[in-house]
TrEMBL record:
InterPro entries given in the database record: Cro/C1-type_HTH, Lambda_DNA-bd_dom_sf, Tscrpt_reg_HTH_MJ1545_prd
Biological classification of the source: Archaea, Nitrososphaerota, Candidatus Caldarchaeales, Candidatus Caldarchaeaceae, Candidatus Caldarchaeum
PROSITE patterns for the chain: HTH_CROC1
Name of one Pfam family that matches: HTH_3
CDD domains documented for this protein: HTH_XRE
Protein name, as recorded: Helix-turn-helix domain-containing protein
Species whose genome carries this gene: Caldiarchaeum subterraneum
GO molecular function: DNA binding
Domain HTH cro/C1-type: 30-84
Amino acid sequence: MSEVDDARKRNLKNIIAGEVVFSKRPGEVLRKWRTLFELSQKSIAREMDISSSVLSDYEKSRRKSPGTDFIRRYVEALIRLDEKRGGVKIREFASDVQTLSDVVLGMSEYTTPKTMADVVKLLKGVWLAGQEQQNSLIFGYTVVDSIEAIKRLGPYDFFRLLGASTERVVVFTNVERGRSPIIAAKIFPLRPRLIAIHGPRRVENVDAMAVELAKRERLPYVLSLHQTVEDVLASLSQ
């Protein structure tokens, strides 16, 4: 493998391991990356020489956070298994680094989690669905340019918007009606704790089907009434 390819592998290993180490929900991150690599628990467990039940316990947080040796072996198993298939995912993720940076306007984890109600207040949000979950905790945020996301992101990139934990708010900006974010969240097995949209100036301008779908899926859904995207970013960084 070339020096460039080796550098890609090292960078990808560091990204995956870093997400697991710093996440408050490491099991979700393990599952996220296994899903992104399109690998089964059985195949990874075999490569790591452990039982599938052990890996399942880590993914479902039934065991305490994995240690550094487990994380290293897990990441190396992902890479080796993908190399056996031609390294398709390694190349895909390496080439997508720039793509994601064009789409994600801001992403961070909170040092101290905030309640969903607090986050909605920061966003000058109007509840569209899921207000009964307002006491749930939010551990981070991602702000996305929805127009760039439609143009640039592939079907599995939605996972990568979730950062180190799904317990976050994902804000879609430059939204016209708000249906696409909810449909995307419905399709994928991992979804953010809260979805917010920015663009429509009134609740009446939000797609009624999106609101109904969010209610049916029990997915908290909010309209941010900040004037600008910059205001959205500034409010979430408080």
